[in-house]
Amino acid sequence: MALTKEIEISGIRVKLKASADTPRVYRHLFGKDLFQDMNMLNLNVTAGSLDMGNTEVLENIAYTMARQADSDIPGIDEWLDQFEVFDIYLAIKDILSLWAANISTMSKSKKK
User: Fold this and answer.
1) Contact, 3 vs 69, CB < 8 A?
2) Is 32 exposed, middle or buried (0-12, 13-18, 19+ CB in 10 A)?
3) How far is the C-alpha of 86 from the C-alpha of 32, rounded, in Å?
4) CB 28, CB 17: distance < 8 Å
5) Would you write out the chain's pLDDT as a tens digit for each of its 112 residues?
6) In this predicted structure, what is the pLDDT of residue 88?
7) CATH architecture, range 3-103
């Protein structure tokens, strides 16, 4: 079951989608494992740091979820250019909460 959320970045409404397909789409777009990158991002955010490697992971995750919600968005560089420099990083809580909610729904038993 896919989850969607609309957030605002730099005054622009951005629709995000997270589903069971998100890790595959992420791997297809960036050649990396979403679970490993998300774990690294969570560990560093919890520790209170967000270095340049982590910012790229956040950008990639946000782009993947936006791309799933709207397949007509441009490539990542053009997509990122529409935002102010650090505004996308302010959306980290929304992005992580959408992913956490997606994981939560994926792990719940469907049997009654």
Assistant:
1) no
2) middle
3) 23
4) no
5) 789 999 999 999 999 999 999 999 999 999 999 999 888 776 555 555 555 557 888 899 999 999 999 999 999 999 999 999 888 888 888 888 888 888 876 555 455 5
6) 87
7) Orthogonal Bundle (1.10)
Question: Phi-psi bin for 48: left (phi > 0), alpha (psi -120 to 50), beta?
Answer: left
In terms of phi and psi (left: phi > 0; alpha: psi -120 to 50; beta: otherwise), the region of 16 is beta
Which structure tokens are listed for 34? Answer: 């979403």
The domain ranges of the chain are 3-103
**Comparing C-alpha atoms, which of 14, 31, 94 is closest to residue 58?**
94
